[in-house]
Amino acid sequence: MMSKRIALLLLVACLAGGLGLWASQWFHGPAAPALPVVKAVTLLPNPRVLPAFSLQQSDGTPLTVDDLKGHWTVVFLGFTHCPDICPTTLAQLAAAQKQWGALPAATRPRVLFLSTDPERDSPKATGDYAHAFHADTLAATAPIPQLEAFARSLSLVFMKAPGPSGDPADYTIDHSAAFVLLDPQVRMAGVVQPPFDIQAIATDLELLSTAPAVIPAQAGIQ
């Protein structure tokens, strides 16, 4: 009699465990596949969902979340009047983009150059500047309030700083130097701090882009 009761309890426990696993998968979806080990990129343990944004691309069309879905995207703040750091960084990123050229266009990493100087940088000027380094670079800007909101959502900052002459037209833009990585769900998923090892960054992004897709936490909810 006792052995039958134990067997029955074990059966009930197994059924309960199976139901619990099924319920967990139904509510939360299957576990996301592990991301590859990276060297230059610091991945966030919990990617940050971004608020809605609308920037203006170089061709005048809006840049929204939908335009970035499906790709890992490197976001870099800058401005076209930058004397050295911005052009040097864009040239380095262009080398990474050449490495990614063999990847499928639908999933290869992207670079987004965001001008934080809309007073001098029109969307077209921003695009002309960025595309001189690599034609695939996304280029955008926006009025200051939208730029500040987008940068803040990525934990980045920028501000106008007076130039040495004292002329109001002679100014520079101080801005965060780090890259921010957006994942294919357009969440803030990682950061890269200077000094940059561009070869390592290129390899990291290639690994991330060819890894199994990360499944959003709510994928199982209908």
TL;DR of this structure?
The protein has 222 residues and is of the alpha+beta class.
Q: How would you describe what is shown here?
A:
There is one protein chain. Helices cover 36% and strands 22% of the residues. The protein is of the alpha+beta class. Strand 2 (55-57) and strand 3 (62-63) form a beta hairpin. Helix 3 packs across helix 6. The longest helix has 27 residues, at 2-28. It starts with a helix and ends in a 12-residue tail after the last helix. Residues 1-31 and 215-222 have low confidence and may be disordered.
Break the fold down into its secondary structure elements and pairings:
Elements: H1 2-28, E1 42-49, E2 55-57, E3 62-63, H2 65-68, E4 73-78, H3 85-100, E5 110-115, H4 123-131, E6 138-141, H5 144-153, E7 158-162, E8 171-175, E9 179-182, E10 187-192, H6 198-210
Parallel strand pairs: 4-5, 5-6
Antiparallel strand pairs: 1-10, 2-3, 2-6, 4-9, 7-8, 9-10
Helix pairs in contact: 3-6
Any key phrases for this structure?
two-stranded antiparallel sheet, single chain, globular, disordered C terminus, eight-stranded mixed sheet, 6 helices, alpha+beta, disordered N terminus, 222 residues
Per DSSP, the total helix count is 6
Radius of gyration: 23 Å
What's the count of strands?
A: 10
Strand portion, in percent?
A: 15-25%
Estimate the global geometry from the Cα principal axes: globular
What's the assembly state of these chains? single chain
Helix content: 25-40%
